[in-house]
Amino acid sequence: MVASVRLAAQAVAVVGFFVSASAALAQDMSQIIDRLNRLERDLADTQREVFRPSAKPRTGSVISTPLTPAAAPVNTGEVPLIARHEIRLQQLENQLRNLTGRIEEFSFSINQFGKRLDRLVSDVDYRLQRLEAAQVSAGTDTQAAAATAGQSQTSQRSAATPNGGRPVPPALGDNDGAVLDQQGTRALGQIPASAAAAKPAQTAPQVAAVPPPILPAGTPRQRYDFAFGLLRKQDYAGAEAAFEAFLTEHPQDNLAGNAQYWLAETYYVRKQFEQAAIAFAAGYQNYPDNIKAADNLLKLALSLARIDKQQDACVALKQLGEKFPKAPSNIRRRAAGEGRRLGCAG
Questions:
Q1: Among 346, 331, 329, which residue's Cα sits nearest to residue 292?
Q2: Mean pLDDT of the chain
Q3: Does residue 30 lie in a domain region?
Q4: pLDDT for res 196
């Protein structure tokens, strides 16, 4: 009888152990599934943030329907299923960390590029101010030269009329016009009147002529075509001056963005890569919606690479790929080749 009671007690204890173990296992599964669902939602939100505006998740990302505790029956033989869920949970956490790291890298790169672009634009503004100051100084010097020439002419006329401009009585002379002194003899050092008349008059110094305008009169389109014609003739210095004049007189015209690009191109073909980088950066900054915006970024990267600024060139190439994913194929191929040559990451 006592043995039967002990056996029954042991059976009850064993059943209680398995019941409590099943309850604990079910609770653990519920927590893991809830955590897995939260991670999947976070991963989906992160993918939508990274791949805007298309909102297409990357190939290979984990997408599954949320699990519920009811869909996963628990018993003592499902320990391997818990292990698989743990592995999957770790994979999702790793993917989430990788995506978060990429977002931080993109944000840092964009901020760095913005700072460098601001420095380039500031440099452009400073150089333009110096050029304008030089032009104003040149105009002042021309006016001063003209005033000096006028004073010189006045002095020469005063010297030609003695006695303050009052009429001088005619001097006595002999038959051939030579001047005689008070004793009636020929004065030494005097030239006969006929010889003096034959001597040509001195010409007054000429005032420097004002240079003609660089651009011809006409519509903005006609002026742009004139500047572009100089570029086609490989008159790069003349094209530079013409495009600068066009941008000064027509900064808001629809062709201003094109003019800025071709102005930068005049520096690039003459291997003035620092000036070219400044001009291409100004073109991208001032005319971001122009048809030449992608060209400006590509040529900015090429110019920066030529002056040994490979890191800045890589930032410009990355910006080109992100801002203009549908750029013409020749631009994308050139950018990809330059990125490989420079060893740009990504």
A1: 331
A2: 73
A3: yes
A4: 45
Q: Which of 113, 133, 166 is the last residue of a domain?
A: 113
Q: Virtual CA dihedral for 287, 290, 292, 298, nearest 10 degrees? A: 60
Token representation of residue 309: 């600024």
Domain boundary residue among 82, 98, 113? 113
Dig out the tokens for 297 from the structure: 């970024």
Count of domains for the chain? 2
Which pTM value belongs to this model? 0.42
Residue 186: pLDDT band with limits 50, 70, 90: very low
* 211-249 pLDDT tens trace: 567 899 999 999 999 999 999 999 999 999 999 999 999
- Report the alpha-carbon distance of residue 66 to residue 30 in Å, rounded: 12
DSSP secondary structure string for all residues of 304-343: HHHTT-HHHHHHHHHHHHHH-TT--HHHHHHHHHHHHHHT
SS3 130: helix
Cβ atoms of 308 and 273 closer than 8 Å: no
Domain ranges, residue 239? 215-342
What is each CA distance from 314 to 48, 67, 99, 186, 341, in whole angstroms? 26, 44, 21, 93, 10
Cβ atoms 260, 295 nearer than 8 A: no
Which amino acid appears at position 55 of this protein? Answer: A
The average pLDDT across 250-261 equals 95
The owner of tokens 């010189």 is 152
